[in-house]
What we know:
- This protein has 359 residues and is an alpha/beta fold.
- Helices cover 38% and strands 20% of the residues.
- The protein has 2 domains: 2-103, no CATH class; 118-306, HAD superfamily/HAD-like (Rossmann fold), CATH 3.40.50.
- The chain is globular.
Amino acid sequence: MRRLPLIVLLVGGCAKPVVVETPAEMSEALAEVVIPPLPLWTHKYADTVEEQGVFLRISAVMARYGMTRLDAVEVQNHLRDQRRVDPQGDLQAQLDEAVARVRRGDRESGVDPAALAAARFVVVFDVDETLWDQSYRVERQGPCHDLAVRDGMEVRYIKTSPHWETAFEAVRGAGGKVAIFSANVDDRTLAGLRAWTWEDRPLTDHPDVLGVFTNSHLVLQDKAEGSRKAPVVEPSKDLRIFDEGLAKVILVDDNPWRTFQPTNLRLVAKLDADLMCDADADPVAQEARAGELARVAASIRDAAAWLDAHPEGTFRQAFLPFTWAGSLAVDTVAEATDHDWPAAMDWVREHPEVVPPQF
């Protein structure tokens, strides 16, 4: 990579050069599938282009290599892994290797496409501040953690969200599958999930967990893709990797900026270990947060019951009243008409077109 000064910005009467990162010269073939790096001031965690990493035009990868969206995102994952090890390596050679790995069936997420296709629906759970809080400090709060994971010479203490198992069991009981999608890095995420067991099996090895996705599975999207010309510039969880039509997948997440599909997002309050472990905290606040995943479980069961009664519908339609965008429509119908909330929920389910797919 190289840096080229592109513009001089006047700030407070003083001229200051603004340096924008641009990629090294690449072939026309590479330029068709590689998204140019964003200016570093837009990136929350990266201070260099190498830290920002390479993002691919997923639709272009799908078209060029005849791949599903899942496999195209797995190509990006393998490519980013290689770039972390050798950021100055031959990008085309690394891309070719990433494609070859996926063609061999090497999906780092562990997803079996046949199991994915057979699932009645998929509920994708975010990790940080949704399933667990790893900012917990045992020396500050005392022994309140649920997991202790060794990272080198240090031990990381993790508080898990109450009722997570209730939520997982609700998914399975209704014929669905769980997937886990963290925006965090591979090693920290996988180490924690291996230490976390469900029915005496690590989450990374449980048959009802389709797979684990991490930050290299996040995507950007060029404004040329999609009908509304809306670029995605925050690395995000694209739920189309689970279902291209978005009919049978939802995301449970505390961060609405990590997805661009608000009609498939069940937004939850952030898990706060300090709050949950503080003996002097407001009990109402503790109880409200402690019940988040129990309420998610109830919404999954409610949606599954509606779908049982309306087999011509989709899980997305059944779950729509509980999503970020759909709940706004339910509130509007209930407050503006004589519908009570259950009737407003059913009306929105019967008229899903009133909920815009994007804000």
